[in-house]
């Protein structure tokens, strides 16, 4: 079994896209994260959903949960409105981590090793033709356990 | 909107359970992680899927992907067999991080702040009666964006 056998089409976003669009993709597709691509369609980062929340939630609430509690329910429900006008680029992690990217020939062990090392449940698969899609941890475990 | 409105039933595992059982739950339910509970059913940790892979993949493959590539496809496909006899406890992260746990009254802002701070797409919800279930990042974003 190789990466090409586990591939799923995967939505990608550009660095300049509105981050609220990324939030909608995460919500609608039940994805562990999004692939962020450059103008050539090549992956430059992975955007985990928690990173979108780090941009949306005021810093004082992240530092101290007691302060989040004093915001009333109506205003709490609307917290994603703070993303208006912000881009995907602003939500990306500041530390440049190793990118979980592999090629279509990678074995399940190579993919699993990449997920383990980068702690990413999502690996982008790239060939000479560009981004082909992604392999998710769930799909990998499912196929390995049932094969 | 409160945690109780976003709750889903969520499979939990005990520290002593076989880790292969955790892998099956992750694969079959498309979950970002599992809640690990003690003998009283109270959450003591969150087990991300990548942590199961860290236990399953030999260290030399995690350190150097070129070494993972030399393992042939047949043996690569069988890499999860290394989990035989291992327990969930062995797969838990060694660093004791803050546990993403909240109560049924938490607002979406409180839940989001907790996910952002702990970088967990999964928050366990606990009342005096014990573990009630979990709120996922996807469910939270979905409800906030469509309400």
UniProtKB/TrEMBL annotation, chains A, B:
Keywords: Kinase, Transferase. Gene3D superfamilies: CBS-domain. It comes from the Bacteria. InterPro entries: CBS_dom, CBS_dom_sf. Signal peptide: none annotated. One of its GO terms (molecular function) is kinase activity. Residues 10-47, 96-144 form the CBS domain. This is Histidine kinase.
């Amino acid at each position: 079994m190789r990466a090409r056998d586990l591939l799923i089409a995967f939505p990608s976003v550009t660095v300049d896209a509105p981050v609220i669009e990324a939030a909608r993709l995460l919500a609608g597709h039940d994805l562990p994260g999004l692939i962020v691509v450059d103008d050539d369609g090549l992956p430059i980062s992975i955007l985990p959903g928690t990173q979108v929340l780090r941009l949306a939630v005021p810093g004082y609430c992240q530092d101290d949960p007691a302060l989040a509690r004093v915001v009333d329910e109506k205003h709490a429900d609307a917290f994603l409105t703070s993303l208006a006008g912000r881009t995907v680029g602003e939500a990306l992690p500041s530390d440049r981590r190793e990118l979980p990217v592999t090629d279509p020939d990678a074995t399940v062990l190579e993919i699993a090793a990449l997920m383990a090392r980068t702690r990413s449940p999502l690996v982008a698969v790239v060939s000479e033709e560009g981004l082909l899609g992604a392999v998710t941890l769930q799909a990998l475990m499912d196929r390995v356990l049932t094969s």
